[in-house]
Amino acid sequence: MNPVRHHTVIDSPYGPLTLVADDGVLSGLYMTEQRHRPPEESFGTHDATAFGEAEEQLEAYFSGELKQFTLELRLSGTPFQQTVWDQLRAIPYGETRTYGELADALGNPKASRAVGLANGKNPVGIIVPCHRVIGASGSLTGYGGGLDRKQRLLDFERGTALF
User: Fold this and answer.
1) What domain of life does the UniProt record list for this protein's source (predicted)?
2) Which of 31, 115, 126, 130 is catalytic?
3) Between vectors from CA 23 to CA 18 and to CA 27, what angle results, nearest 5°?
4) In terms of residue numbers, what domain contains 154?
5) What predicted TM-score, i.e. pTM, was given to this entire model?
6) Is residue 93 part of a domain?
7) pLDDT tens per residue across all 163 residues of the chain
8) Is 10 assigned a catalytic role?
């Protein structure tokens, strides 16, 4: 049986964000022009009232009051992707990890490329902080929401954002 799917679009300092829920549980957060963004018709019916807790936590995050999200999530992905996404949630606010460090943490030091692919398929950006993953040299590497947004999110979390 297919889940009942709803969505809404909210404003953020990083542009509009589309929130998607399956049976009332957040399953997607997508930016405009995001790589791997599902087609709009897959987001279900519009319901601006179904996302109160997610909107509250995102607002608190963007105002600098919230450092760790506590939302229930329904993430659809392979077991490996799920493991990588769990590792992403363990990266503290304002810090970064390299793809290699995540691969090491997973017990597979040669899996940094696979970690990068799983990172790119993260369906709940910002809340599952894939923006906190950087290249081995410390450089910004791919980000589904664009490198400019990635840099802005990192600067915001480090307290160095220029608005």
Assistant:
1) Bacteria
2) 130
3) 40
4) 79-158
5) 0.90
6) yes
7) 778 999 999 999 999 999 999 999 999 999 888 777 888 889 999 998 889 999 999 999 999 999 999 999 999 999 999 999 999 999 999 999 999 999 999 999 999 999 999 998 999 999 999 999 988 887 787 777 778 888 999 999 998 765 5
8) no
